[in-house]
Every structure is written in C-alpha cells, then in structure tokens.
Amino acid sequence: MVAIAADFVIIRFIRGPIIKLKEAAEEIGEGKLDARVEVNSTDEVGGLAYAFNRMADQVREATTTLEDRVRERTEELEEAQERLLRIERMAAVGEVAAAMAHELRNPLAGIKNAIYYVKNGLEKTGQAGGDPRIPEFFDLMETEVEASNRIIMELLDYSRVNPLSLSVAGIEALVDGAVSEAGIQQNVNVVKEIDQSVPEVWANLEQVHLAFLNLINNAGDAMPEGGTLTISAGAAGKFVEVKFSDTGEGIAEENLDRVFDPLFTTKEKGTGMGLALVYRIIERHQGTLAVASKQGDGTTFSVKLHRKIE
Fold this sequence. Notes:
By secondary structure, the protein is an alpha+beta fold. It has three domains: 2-68, no CATH class; 92-159; 167-306, Heat Shock Protein 90 (2-Layer Sandwich). 57% of the residues lie in helices and 15% in strands. It contains six helices and seven strands, in the order H-H-H-E-H-E-E-H-E-E-H-E-E. A hairpin with a 5-residue loop joins strand 6 (288-293) and strand 7 (299-306). The radius of gyration is 34 Å and the shape is elongated. The relative contact order is 0.09.
C-alpha cells in the first residue's frame, strides 16, 4: 500500500508535470512558441513550470524581435538594391543622352542656319510669291528646331555629372528663385508655407534650383485648367523636407513606380527627362525624392535635403 501510494504521488506530482514540461519543450522546438505548462502548485515542480513559461515568453519575444529585424533588414536591402539598379540605369542613360545630344546638336544648328538663310533670301527677292503658307512653314520649322534644342539641353543637363560644390542655402531663397523663373500659367495659384525657422540646407545652388524648377513646371503642366501649387517646408530629423503639392489630375497608380525613369512620360509633348533629372540631382545630394498621388486628387513630390547642423 505504501509503495502504491508513493508511486501515485510520484506520477501525480512529479512525473506528470515533468512529462508536460517535456512535451511543451518539444512543441517549442518545433516552432510552436505559444506552448505553455499549466502551473498548479507552488512547490519545486511548480516553480520549474513557472520558470519554463517565463523562458518560453522570452524566447517568443526574442524570436519576434529577430523576425522583425530580419524583415526590416531585408526590406532595406531590397530598397538599396533597387536604388542601386536605378542609379546604374540612370548612369547608362546619361552616357547615351550625352552622345545623342552632341551628335544632334551640330545638324540642328545647320538646319537652323539654313532656315534663316533661305527665309531671308526669299523675303529679299520676293520669290515667296505672296503664298501665306510659306512664312507659316518657316515658323513651324523654327518652332520645331527650338523644341529639339530644348530636348538636347535636357539630355545634356541629365548627362552632366560634375563634382558637387555644396554651400549653405536657405530654402525660401531657393524656392523663390525657382518660382520666379518657372513658366507657370496665370490660372495657377502658388502658395508658400515656409516658416522662417526652417533650417538652412547643404546644396549645390545651381542644381537644386534646376530640380525645384522642374518640379514647379511639372506641377503647372499637371494643371492645364488651373489650380493651386502649395510649396511647404519643414525640418525632418537631419533633413529639411520640401513638398510640392498640386491640385492637378494626379498620377495613375500603375505609373507611380516609373515617374522617375528616364524617357518615361505620359505627356503628349514631354521628353520624360525632367523628373529623372530631379531624381538624379537629389540622389547626388544623398537626399531623397518621393511621390504620393491619387488620380483625380493631385500629386505631392517630397524632397529631403541635408540640413545645416548648428
């Protein structure tokens, strides 16, 4: 009877809980991190079960933290890889753009001079014969040559990779300079929301001016029927963030990932180099350029440049 009673005690209070501990440990080993042991006593075995549960909680927390870090790191690596591939593509396009621009520049200059010579010769000799279409054709040719020259200048601007010469600049001055030069139509209202306390930034004045100018003109093109362009700026950690928000037609979701690709455009007369140039300029400043848009609700381009640290 004593032996039977002792065996019952061992099975009930020692062997049973140990088997449960073993089973729970095996479940955790299989990845079931929610496995726990029910604590029914305050003796040594109960203390062991409590310690096991606490260890299981720590394992689950550590595993969750590790998975989050691995996921974040993977996303960072994917973003870095995509960024590197974009930079490599842009560099390759830049080389092609430079070659194309130089090859086309001289023929266009010859065509422009020939148009000028023939046009003046016809006017002086009166050989146009009073046909009103002839001056129209000359005007059309001159317009197309100028448009081609603008494309060449965009290609050359994109291909330039001169060393950056950085200086301290105020955001409001950069914005004002770009707004004053931009060809925004009169039915577009420009609103500035730039606080006087916004820190200065490190920038190449000429290149950032060109980037802001392209963003402003792009916003104007997105609002052919008129609208509002809001330019705001504020500190964002070690950066200053400048946002260009228009009330235009917006960008289709399937095109958002392509707006910074060279030669991609949805405009009838666009070259697809403007936003690509902006991206390349901000990338060279080790800043960031992002876009947020919804078709019908306008678009916001966000530029981050390194702030001057006091």
